[in-house]
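Box S1 | Example of a co-folding query
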Amino acid sequence: MASERISILDGKRILLGVTGSIACYKSADLASKLVQAGASVNVILTDAAQQFITPLTFQAVTGHVTYTSMWHTDSSGGLPTHIAHVGLSENADMLVIAPATAQHIAKLANGFADDLICLTALNCRCPILVAPAMDGNMYDHPATVENIRKLQERGIIVIEPDEGRFASGLVGRGRLPEVPTLIGHIRHHMGREWGGLRDRHVLVTAGGTREAIDPVRYVTNRSSGKQGYAVAQAALDAGATVTLISTPTGLPVPINATAIIVESAQEMLDAVLEHSNAADALIMAAAVADYRPLNVADQKIKKTDDVLTLDLTRTPDILQTVGQQRKQTGQPYVLVGFAAETQDLLKNAKSKLRRKNVDYIIANDVTRDGAGFQADTNIVTIVGADGNTLSLPQQTKSAVAEVIIQRIAARLQTIPHRQRK
Ligand code: C5P
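Box S1 (continued) | Returned holo structure for cytidine-5'-monophosphate
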């Protein structure tokens, strides 16, 4: 399957520094995935990295020459100047050093300039991401801890390594994270630099709630959580701080989102109310059950009778509660609800807008092919409280999420940032 283009990475110039750790086999895949996402990638390899992987590997996946020497001059015209370290840094929107060895972290922390990566890093004025990779004892060593702290104090973003088994056979913290995790950090920090929701806090709900019948059974719906997770990712790509309140979906939590896992509508309401007053926007993409069993049996219900009758009672309406509350508090500034309908789509969406005091309803007819639950695409109409409606053609849930986030960002532009605590 072809990799998806990622809007925030599309057209961005990423300079990838690869230092001499066995983990640099992952860097080739990272370079390839960044290119597939739409980025233009230049690679610098240290001498030690070339013990593990060759310049040709990166040349093949990026389509650009790989830089290996601080004495390199580039007369191809591809860089703004022929002096490689200046040209590479001037030409970069972000420098990513992955893997970064203990040696290179120490050199960066002390401002060394004796190889092309260090030299270029000194000249860089773009964001720098460093992904350490080394054995656990080296990562925990006070010298490395001190060096990492120095880098962070200078605004360099250090990606926490994973815990697990090293090539040495030992176990500890120091493994280079997998490529999707690295990409997750890169896209979020690109968003922090260029996105429309920098310094904004976005709350997203996702998944279908589970309403308990007894200790082993529950009532739920067909929601997969995909649209809500895509909204959370789009908000991260726009640079927001994201809290994702989700039911268990089995989907990977987008990197840098804070996930709160809940089951029932009541638990979701409690979590939303805890966070909504500090949020700039709330997007209720969750399919919240409208009814729950009136009584939850303490023990598993036995199959004694042919017919089992469950009494159901209404669950709290989360969106409506927040919509009412913000009449007093003013927050969240932007409220977005979803309307999954099987009939009278626009009529229902408009009545929901008023009843729940929300700014936008994302209406989708879940009976249409390529829309609604489980699908990777959606067909939605965005209905605004200002009377505007926008019907989008069938597109990926990620693309739909981006349009929603752009709307929210545009609206928030008219609202000043709350004073930071
Ligand atoms: O009224 P209806 O359930 O169709 O409204 C859908 C919107 O309201 C969705 O955004 C959903 O997340 C939210 N909702 C809610 N609490 C409920 C039911 C729905 O917040 N109990």
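The pocket of cytidine-5'-monophosphate is lined by residues 265, 284, 286, 288, 290, 315, 317-319, 337-339, 352 (CB under 6 Å). The domain at 13-189 is CATH 3.40.50.1950 (Rossmann fold).
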